[in-house]
């Protein structure tokens, strides 16, 4: 069984008399240490998958096995622990706390787990040695996203989930952020899942899960993922 295994997962939203099926019989596996990209156009159901994998939402039906445990059966309390200890999340618009410095933003996360990485070292690792005591408003978009990545990885999560992490960034800054995410997988052994509508970045992934209209349309394995420096879009 794969490290992450979503099996026949459905997510239905009920709005009055209508039911929206955001995920329709979604099944895929992701191996430990892989960089996986979930690719699809707007409304395909990608964020729904990511939120369910991250324990921020629950599915209506089907299994969500993470490291051998089915989180779809978890209680609210178990899901809180799961989000706290096992998951790092990176959002499109960074979601940093505006009145805390870069270091303090990372500490917010590192202080709630037992075996966290050192916040300063984590910021140095993402190239922010000279920005440690700056507030988010003093940082560029790319730098803010790097703080957000440092915050996510400082907890040593089992899985790093990223929702359109380069969506608000320009081309070169986006590539730098992708490089950091690919390094998390290649050099640190983290399992990284990126949701995007940008098909140009698919070649950097070990596995590409194509979604359309709430379903998985196909899954591609890249035996030789492209280096970010060779990527063009
Ligand atoms: N809380 C909700 N209540 C009702 N419908 C929802 C809710 N969340 C998502 N949906 C619907 O589910 C479908 C899938 O949404 P989802 O956000 O997963 O797509 P997506 O592929 O991530 O799109 P985008 O790239 O635009 O974020 C959409 O039709 C959306 O309107």
From TrEMBL:
InterPro entries: AAA+_ATPase, ABC_transporter-like_ATP-bd, ABC_transporter-like_CS, MacB-like_ATP-bd
ABC transporter domain residues: 4-233
Keywords: ATP-binding, Nucleotide-binding, Transport
GO molecular function, one term: ATP binding
One family name in Pfam for this protein: ABC_tran
Database matches in SMART domains: AAA (SM00382)
Family that this chain belongs to: Belongs to the ABC transporter superfamily.
PANTHER family membership: ABC TRANSPORTER ATP-BINDING PROTEIN MG467-RELATED, LIPOPROTEIN-RELEASING SYSTEM ATP-BINDING PROTEIN LOLD
Protein's name according to its UniProt entry: ABC transporter ATP-binding protein
